[in-house]
Give the backbone structure.
Amino acid sequence: MTDKPWTRLFVVRHGETKWNFEGRWQGWLDSPLTEKGREQAARAGETLKDCGATAIWTSDAGRARETAEIIGRALNLRPEADAGPRERFYGKYEGMTSSEIDEKFPDTRYEAGRDLRDTWRPVGGETLVEVSARVLTFIRQMTEKYPGETIVLVTHSGVLRVLDALSSRQSLEQIWEQAPANCAIFELDANADGDLKVVRHFST
């Protein structure tokens, strides 16, 4: 077992957006929070205000930054943004609904039995292997910067699911259908060796 200090992370999915409501794939594109999304972010801030965080970080996507700003006001912390915890890049699917994708790009969406979840690539997008490597690099940077501390990270559904799979030692096939709700919170411990441990999941 490593002797490197653990960093506690409260990982939060961003609040509901206009495209969430419309069922559009967002990825690296963006849409604003709805009023419901801002209310979800405010509740997350209330939930986390006594968690002892010394910093709040966020994906550089506008929806995550807005969520982090609302949470940060409750924690009296100013969010810092980074590209590391961005959502998965969905390439040519972004901004489209599932039915639009099926019409424009037939036979390219993930299909169980034909594709492997971790290596399937959306047209022009990222595989989950690539997402995992990017996210783990960012998490290691956080553990080196904040050893033994607690931080809040505002990110995206795909990133939460990757972290959940890695920390619970489950496959991405097992975890992928368990989509976290907007502003769901995933608490985990991480260290600079890349070790991850689940603490708990909870909703606001």
